[in-house]
Amino acid sequence: MSQENSCCRVCSRGLYSCHWRDSSSNKRKQARCWFSVVSLASLLSLCWMYICLVTFNDREDVNWQGFTKLKRWVNWFMVVIIISAVLTSYCILLLLFALFQVALGERLDLHWLHKIFLFFGVIFVAFGITGISLQWQQEWPTVPLSLQATAPFLQFGAVGALTLLSSFVFHGFDRAKTAGSKALIASAFVVVSAAIFLCPLFIQSPCLIAPSDLPDKPKLIGHRGAPMLAPENTMMSFDRSIACGVTAFETDVQLSKDRIPFLMHDSGSDFLMRTTNVKEKFPDKRFSHSANLTWEELQRLNAGEWFLKTDPFRSVSQLTEEEKETAKNQSIPSLLQLLVLAQQRNISVIFDLYSPNQEGDTNDTVSTILDSGIDPSLILWLPPAERDTVILTAPGFIQVYKSETKMFDKGGNHLNVKYSNLSTEKIRELRRKNVTVNLWVVNDRWLFSLLWCAGVSSVTTNSCHQFQAMEHPDWVMAHGRYNTIWIIVDALSCLIMTGLYICQRKTHRLCHRRERQSNNTSAWNEKELSPFLPTG
Ligand SMILES: *[C@@H]1O[C@H](CO)[C@@H](O)[C@H](O)[C@H]1NC(C)=O
Ligand SMILES: *[C@@H]1O[C@H](CO)[C@@H](O)[C@H](O)[C@H]1NC(C)=O
Ligand SMILES: *[C@@H]1O[C@H](CO)[C@@H](O)[C@H](O)[C@H]1NC(C)=O
Ligand SMILES: *[C@@H]1O[C@H](CO)[C@@H](O)[C@H](O)[C@H]1NC(C)=O
């Protein structure tokens, strides 16, 4: 802190407060207040970024919701992620500059432009959180679930940050004038440190097990095929999912006017709009019903061009030219086509039935399956509506349930639920009872790893090609080993902080002596040395 206007000093001052020259008006209190705002905004934006990253697994939900409302495909989730990333980097940089200012002994006036940006940032995050709470409530359980995968690393990060920031706290402590404020700083610091140091005592994760106890890798079920590698619910998509070793095809069935079961997810007012060129082929008609078109008419639609145009998973660039040509030429497949492929490859089929006419559609679907000659034990029957009839007409099908109580009532042993609806303890309990547990839709590595550790039987996924390549979960650690690691990390941090504190006291005393000797109080004392200084 020698030169009054060294380069980095001016730089930091300019970027944070836009005071290129050192003015000396006294607004310390306000400046300190804004420093707290910057810190809180950084923390808030980090938390928000974390939420965005862990809900990335379900980005398709958001984009699909957007489509059903606006009838236009936009990658909304990516837009939110990019804005959030910019906002988070901005807040963190601002905080770093603030700390830099403190370290340089500069004043902490925040420029008004930063105040406005911060205000918009906070509003954006508030909107995001309200949006999730109102429109996407079922997503909240993903956040605590993700902590089972990330908490050990977040704790190491927090210990690191605490160690780095401790010198600023010690600085504030030394310069505090009254015993009361010293006690306040010390007790706040001790409480926060204790919480950070000891939280591993409360961390639970299915991956804290001996590597030898790791269950088998979950089997993969292709969600509408391999929708990142080919347009969903097309024969190309199912072909590509075979290449990633899936044990079952997941799909969606509806019936045409002439009672042919075909594969299409969207129904109601969105029917055919997202994944086909229905607007081009039938410009003046609006179909809201699978029985609006005959099988012959459905086959005239293209079910692949949309994939290349909208690139829903930002994965089209990974396709070869030949694959792009094939994708461009896909039509809507019938259920029969899929059954033939499944029988050839000995792969199971599980599907939802989007049916406005439960009884008739169920009967026609079951007879299509029985007539196809497929081994009935390859059919995982999921639609609950006419289950009792199906059990009578097709006793060979495997019955899969969406709720645990229903399953036990009917004496079944196959369960298919959303990944966040079962706790890891519950998964283990069900597996001990020999229940086959399939969870949907699992797309990100951290989630797959966690469920692997928990021991699920299979997952429905968009990312079969990524999971196929995984040989281990992202991490598995014996409990004892984790305890050793976090205790060592905590101890190291304590040592470093003690060292920093001793250094701090020494320089502090040295400064005091010099000040007294030179009797020149103007250069140092007027300056803002610490935002942690109590106001008194
Ligand atoms: C589609 O089917 C529904 C229900 O049967 C009917 O009300 C509607 O008019 C049909 N739309 C077209 C374009 O045929
Ligand atoms: C693509 O479709 C067109 C007609 O829609 C057909 O003439 C052509 O043979 C198809 N190409 C391939 C590679 O299937
Ligand atoms: C089909 O796969 C199952 C296991 O997934 C296996 O038990 C069975 O023997 C296979 N059948 C044929 C005909 O390969
Ligand atoms: C689960 O299956 C295993 C082997 O198939 C068997 O030994 C065990 O008794 C079964 N457990 C229950 C609760 O049925």
From TrEMBL:
InterPro entries: GP_PDE_dom, PLC-like_Pdiesterase_TIM-brl. Residues 218-471 form the GP-PDE domain. GO terms for molecular function: glycerophosphodiester phosphodiesterase activity. The chain crosses the membrane at residues 33-56, 76-100, 112-133, 153-171, 183-203, 485-503. GO terms for cellular component: plasma membrane. One of its GO terms (biological process) is lipid metabolic process. Pfam families: GDPD, GDPD_2. Gene3D superfamilies: Phosphatidylinositol (PI) phosphodiesterase. Its main location: membrane. It is a multi-pass membrane protein. Keywords: Glycoprotein, Hydrolase, Membrane, Transmembrane, Transmembrane helix. It comes from the Eukaryota. It is found in: Membrane. Belongs to the glycerophosphoryl diester phosphodiesterase family. This is GP-PDE domain-containing protein. It comes from Scophthalmus maximus (Turbot). The lineage of its organism: Eukaryota, Metazoa, Chordata, Craniata, Vertebrata.
